[in-house]
Amino acid sequence: MVDWSRLLIRTNRPDTPKMLGCWEWLIGRDKHPLVMTKFGDWFLADPQGRVHWLDLLEGTCNQVADSVAEFEQLMVQEEQLDLWFMLPWCYRLHDEGQVPSEDQCFGFKIPPKLGAPVELANVEVANLMVYQVWMAETAKIPTGTKVDAITVNGKLP
Predict the structure, then answer these.
(1) How far apart are CA 22 and CA 36, in angstroms?
(2) How many helices (H) and strands (E) does the chain have?
(3) In what order do the strands lie in the sheet with 42-45?
């Protein structure tokens, strides 16, 4: 039996519009959230009822189901639990005592898009809003771009 509390973050929260606003350049304005994973990924429904996966790691938004009902059937399949919800990683991190609070998620310390490995050692508990902003901005960087430094408000952190 899947423990969804280890895999999902509630989406009926006051900061949901602001978080999705970070991704408006990619997802548009017509989608509404269905679920958010502990890694900050979103599953969104469009006006036609199709479901799209906003994958923060890849910085992409792709259709994964023709309907919410189809998505609900897919999301409980072992392959999708691993791919979409990173079940083994979430369970392991939780078992190791890394449990995000209401305003936190699991996040990559250094985004793999910037050359870091996709491995548990590169994962930490992160502020959810900050991680959404960080990943949305990182997603805009063209693949292959060499990044020497990141500044915050024009200053090195």
Answers:
(1) 15
(2) 6, 7
(3) 8-9, 32-37, 42-45, 51-55, 60-65
What would the DSSP string read from start to end of 21-64?
A: HTTHHHH-SS-EEEEEETTS-EEEE-TTS-EEEEETTTTEEEEE
Model pLDDT for residues 3-39, shown as the tens digit of each residue: 999 999 999 999 999 999 999 999 999 999 999 999 9
Burial (CB count <10 Å: 0-12, 13-18, 19+), residue 13: middle
* 63-131-97 Cα angle (round to 5): 105
- Do residues 108 and 57 make contact, with C-beta atoms less than 8 angstroms apart? yes
Instruction: Report whether 46 contacts 52 (CB < 8 A).
Output: yes
pTM above 0.90, yes or no: yes
List the end-to-end C-alpha distance of the chain, in Å, as a whole number: 43
Amino acid at 134: W
Residue with tokens 């936190």: 104
